[in-house]
Amino acid sequence: MSRWSSGSQSGLREANTAKIVDAVKRFGGLTQVELAEATSLSTATVSAIVKELSLSGLVETHPTSRSGRRAQLVTIARRAGVVAAVQIGSRSMRVRLADVGQEVLAERAMPLPADHPDDTVLDRITLLVIDMLAMIAADAEELLGVCIAVPAPVDPDSGLIAYHGVMRRWEAQPIAAVVEQRLGCPVLVEKDANLAALAEATLGTARDVADSLFVQASYTTSAGVVLGSQMYRGRSGTAGEIGHVQVDPAGSVCPCGQRGCLETVVGAEAITAPLRATYGQITFRDVIARAAAGDPGCARVVADAAATLGRVVAGVHQSLAPEVITVGGELIDAGPIFLLPFATALRDHAPQRRTPRRDPVPSSFGKDAVLVGATIHILQSTDPSQLLEDRS
Ligand SMILES: [Zn+2]
After folding, report:
1. Which fold has domain 206-363?
2. How far is the centre of ligand 1, averaged over its atoms, from the C-alpha of 223 (Å)?
3. Distance 264 CA to ligand 1 centre (A)
4. Is the predicted pLDDT of residue 388 greater than 70, yes or no?
5. Distance from the CA of 170 to the center of ligand 1, in angstroms?
6. Which CATH number fits domain 15-76: 1.10.10.10, 2.40.160.40, 3.40.190.10, 2.60.40.3080?
7. What pLDDT score was predicted for residue 392?
8. Distance 259 CA to ligand 1 centre (A)
9. Top CATH class, 82-194+370-391
């Protein structure tokens, strides 16, 4: 066999292996027949690759039954317990199970209605986590903790949403206590941008510096601050709440009760509203995709939003002087259309220094930044060996 053909065959084998590992992570656990269906590979190929993966310790097989027949459930091998990271967004929810080595074991996403009610969502989280544990053949006792990310600041003392109006139906809900009671393990609740900031500070763009800022340019607008390598929440957990900095004293009224907050100018509603007359019912994601593809109208609103955001972040930069500014959230998918005016505004609205400032950088983790941070946060606050001992 020539070197060329053996090279391409091992490339194919690697690609098939990656397909299988992805499918197992996506579904949490599948039988070999289900894996063959999910990956469009033959059962013989699946069987050979699963054997190889289980010998190398990457996957495990557990006896199970499907339609009355015995089968082997294939899951990602896990080390000493499982944690769940939950991201509640404006329109969707994601749940990820990971082991103590941060290896992703399973992941699910589900849409949420606009202005979702807290009790229904908390029920769904509980059921989904239980269902996903079953999918990876894990016992409830293996769940070491849960971290729930919300798109609003959380008061660390009360555990409640810190601002009135920004997550209307959640204000009286002690989220951590409710989920803790249902799942029987420690639960943390944290602002999404803080967790993304933690992810970048631990493993991403800001891993080599002590002070950094993560700017979340998504359906809502926020920032997470890391000072001295620690998440900095400030009084009542509202540090980094740039979305509620006033940028237009005559602007529209924000859900927080102020007039002309940054979020009323750069949030999803502000970005889509001016385009409706021309584009009809266009979504936030549509605008971003069209802006990235060069549509001039969509590019205009994204660039204007980026410039306004950059001006506000310049103010934060002046007061905190972080070494690294990372930007994440859906808007960075617009690419340079967003990033260039953002960086320019940041540069233009702060005095020139003798040492050049670093330009803002896009998130290392993209749409996964919050879940990566939530996983790190719950792992940092639980001692898996201790918890397992307590339960045995
Ligand atoms: Zn506001």
Report:
1. Nucleotidyltransferase; domain 5 (3.30.420)
2. 14
3. 7
4. no
5. 17
6. 1.10.10.10
7. 41
8. 7
9. alpha beta
pLDDT at residue 391 tops 60 = no
Mean pLDDT score of the chain, rounded to an integer? Answer: 89
217 CA → ligand 1 middle, Å = 15
CA of 245 to the centre of ligand 1 (A): 7
Question: What spacing in Å lies between the alpha carbon of 379 and ligand 1's midpoint?
Answer: 32
Domains 82-194+370-391 and 206-363 alike in fold = yes
What would the two tokens of residue 272 be? 């889509």
Report the separation in Å between the CA atom of 345 and the middle of ligand 1, taken as the mean of its atom positions. 21
Query: 3-20, pLDDT tens digit by residue?
Result: 444 457 778 888 999 889
Residues around ligand 1, an ion, CB closer than 5 A: 244, 254, 256, 258, 261
Ligand 1 midpoint to CA 182 (Å): 33
